[in-house]
Amino acid sequence: MAIGDALGQPRRGLDWRGVQERFGDALELTPWPPDAQRAAQQPAGRIGELAQLVMRLSLQAGASGIRPRTGLLVDELLGMETLSSLPAQAAVARIRAGIEPTRSAVPELAGPEALYVAVPVGIANAGDPETAFLATRAIAGTILLGASLDAGQTLAAGASAALIPGATPSSILEAMLDLAPPGVSRELVPAARFAAAHLGDPTDNLMPAIHDRFSSRRSADAHGPAVESLVVAAMLVYLSDGLPGQSLRAAASYGGWSHATTAVAGALAGCLSGAASIPQELTRAVLAANPDADIAEAARQLCRLVRLECERQRKRLDQIEQLAGVDAAQRR
């Protein structure tokens, strides 16, 4: 996810044609140009504030030994020094004004926060897409509602499904489609059909058609950029057979909310294929560019959390089996 965010940051706000003109189609980390966003120019490989927020959430959840909880996002938002995201700014302002977090949602602002938060929530609930879906609403719903939150919930289900042994790009899409709210499903269903019809085609050749068909700017009543990022990323992961390098490259060339789209693609492909399949030069470069973000430690803490949860589940199963054995003996 961090690699995808770092790849996408310099490409924010450009359409796919602009990305091709400025960056070409190489999978290369570049500095953030001054016009990429309001934030100051950053060096190549630097991640944005939402990716940094995810690292903090992951570290806190891992250190606590329990799955991410409802108030964790609010706690971490309040602890961040700067926030350029309008939904996050509005949420923090309302909370500091004494408004309860559960009432501070800002549905009129469509930010990608829920997509980012969904990644550690999906991993923490590995193999349980429905629980990941519900947990994302409990956490990200403190600052967002509507299409952005729906997209985040759907992504959490996909990330959770990607960690099921034997998962495939098809099984990820199926898990997402099973749980996707109507607003997401309306876009995800045709995207899945499009991907299935063009499986094996080079994504470079498909990009104009993907942009024309699924861009949220194509109509006044569009679904919103968070849904667009989710749908396009899931489609590109499917078309790339779940391979992280190919998925990241395709998503980075799409443009728009490229940081979110590429972060989602990297997260899904990474969960599916594993760390060893990620281009190691990208891993090294992003880790080196973000020594303060503790990316590797955040990943280790999430893995620790998954192991702890597996141990708790095994103990519960043992207890159930013991109770069942006692009950059977009593009946005899």
Give the helix tally. 16
Task: List SSEs in N-to-C order.
Answer: HHHHHHHHHHHHHHHH
CATH topology assignment: ADP-ribosylglycohydrolase fold
Distance between the termini: 55 Å
CATH superfamily: ADP-ribosylation/Crystallin J1
Bin the helical content. 55-70%
Characterize the overall form: globular
Annotated CATH architecture: Orthogonal Bundle
Classify the beta-strand content into a percent band. under 5%
Largest sheet: none
How many beta-strand runs?
A: 0
Structural class, judged by helices and strands?
Answer: mainly alpha
Instruction: Give me the Rg, rounded.
Output: 20 Å
Average of the residue pLDDT scores = 85
Query: How many independent structural domains?
Result: 1
Description of the structure:
- The protein is mainly α.
- The protein has a single domain (2-331), classed as ADP-ribosylglycohydrolase fold.
- It is 65% helix and 0% strand.
- The model is unreliable at 218-222 (pLDDT under 50).
Helix and strand layout, with pairings?
Layout: H1 2-8, H2 16-23, H3 49-64, H4 72-79, H5 86-96, H6 113-124, H7 129-140, H8 146-162, H9 169-179, H10 182-197, H11 203-214, H12 225-239, H13 244-252, H14 258-273, H15 280-289, H16 295-331
Helix pairs in contact: 1-14, 3-4, 3-6, 3-16, 6-7, 6-8, 6-14, 7-8, 8-9, 8-12, 8-14, 9-12, 10-12, 12-13, 12-14, 13-14
